[in-house]
């Protein structure tokens, strides 16, 4: 019951990290869990999965169709829980990695702009409206968690340049907001996942064995991460257990970014 009394919003909740986090939030007694995504059908399926696991959460879990790159939709979503006391926890997790994202020469302009619009502006809008809600409700604490990536920390020789740049922006933005709002009691942290076993990456890799091997060789543990392993970190950051944790880049990567060479 680490989130008892807290109203939480999770974007990108139709699958992967967002769904696993919504489940943990509901299991940990959150007063409200808003599951938001741009895909309404997948969102309803995700909610049904959650309710199978946490049947007593039916009156606390809501879905909201929201494109995070549209500020009016983010605003509407945040305002939808004002009557329940406003936001306490905002997990800005929605993101894309486009199939046409490439290197400095081959990344199309439109893909660059689309990626920044969703991955950077979407996170900014989420932070902005979380802060407005926290202020409006005169809260003295709040937790905002933004999903970045290990590619914001280490260079990848297999480029998705627009994605990498967008995740670097998420880290820098989160760090600055943490310092700006430290005395308000609003904590901002970013999550840096390693390559995961979620649709975002697995669909992109498909059955291309060489593409997979190019990544797997770098994993000290020898495997992709699981979404639920990220969700446990998000739960910690959302809860008061993390009351003195702000401005941090929480790396959940099976040791990948600390490896020189990996075991044979
Ligand atoms: P996922 O594809 O399962 O989930 C992403 C969700 O975001 C999807 O449900 C999608 O519909 C939603 N989404 C996309 N655009 C949106 C928009 N404009 N508005 C609202 N929702 C939108 O993938 P995931 O791995 O769970 O990804 C979650 C986050 O983790 C992303 O920000 C991703 O960049 C990041 N991440 C993933 C990996 C990985 O290997 N999968 C690694 C590092 C970081």
Automatic annotation (TrEMBL):
GO molecular function, one term: oxidoreductase activity
Xref: InterPro entries: NAD(P)-bd_dom_sf, Sc_DH/Rdtase_CS, SDR_fam
Pfam families: adh_short_C2
Keywords linked to the UniProt accession: NADP, Oxidoreductase
Highest taxon, organism lineage: Eukaryota
Ranges that cross the membrane: none
Family: Belongs to the short-chain dehydrogenases/reductases (SDR) family.
PANTHER family (alphabetical): 3-OXOACYL-(ACYL-CARRIER-PROTEIN) REDUCTASE (AFU_ORTHOLOGUE AFUA_6G11210), DEHYDROGENASE_REDUCTASE FAMILY PROTEIN, PUTATIVE (AFU_ORTHOLOGUE AFUA_6G03520)-RELATED
Protein name in UniProt: Similar to 3-oxoacyl-[acyl-carrier-protein] reductase FabG acc. no. Q9X248
Species for this entry: Pyronema omphalodes (strain CBS 100304) (Pyronema confluens)
């Amino acid at each position: 019951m680490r989130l008892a009394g807290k109203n939480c919003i999770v974007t990108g909740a139709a699958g992967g990290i967002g769904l696993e986090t919504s489940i943990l939030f509901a299991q940990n007694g959150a007063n409200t869990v808003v599951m938001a995504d741009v895909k309404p059908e997948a969102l309803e399926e995700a909610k049904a999965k959650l309710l199978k696991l946490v049947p007593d959460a039916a009156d606390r879990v809501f879905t909201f169709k929201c494109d995070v790159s549209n500020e009016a939709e983010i605003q509407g979503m945040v305002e939808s829980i004002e009557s329940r006391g406003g936001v306490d926890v905002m997990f800005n997790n929605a993101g894309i990695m486009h199939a046409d994202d490439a290197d400095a020469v081959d990344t199309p302009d439109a893909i660059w702009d689309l990626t920044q619009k969703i991955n950077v502006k979407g996170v900014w809008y989420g932070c902005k409206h979380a802060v407005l809600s926290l202020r409006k409700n005169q809260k003295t604490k709040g937790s905002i968690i933004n999903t970045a990536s290990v590619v914001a920390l280490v260079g990848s020789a297999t480029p998705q340049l627009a994605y990498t740049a967008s995740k670097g922006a998420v880290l820098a933005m989160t760090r600055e907001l943490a310092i700006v709002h430290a005395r308000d009691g609003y904590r901002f942290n970013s999550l840096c996942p390693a390559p995961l076993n979620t649709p975002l990456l697995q669909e992109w890799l498909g059955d291309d064995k060489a593409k997979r091997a190019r990544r797997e060789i770098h994993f000290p543990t020898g495997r992709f991460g699981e979404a639920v392993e990220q969700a446990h970190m998000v739960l910690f950051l959302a809860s008061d257990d993390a009351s003195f944790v702000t401005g941090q880049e929480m790396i959940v990567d099976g040791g990948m970014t600390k490896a020189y060479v990996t075991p044979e």
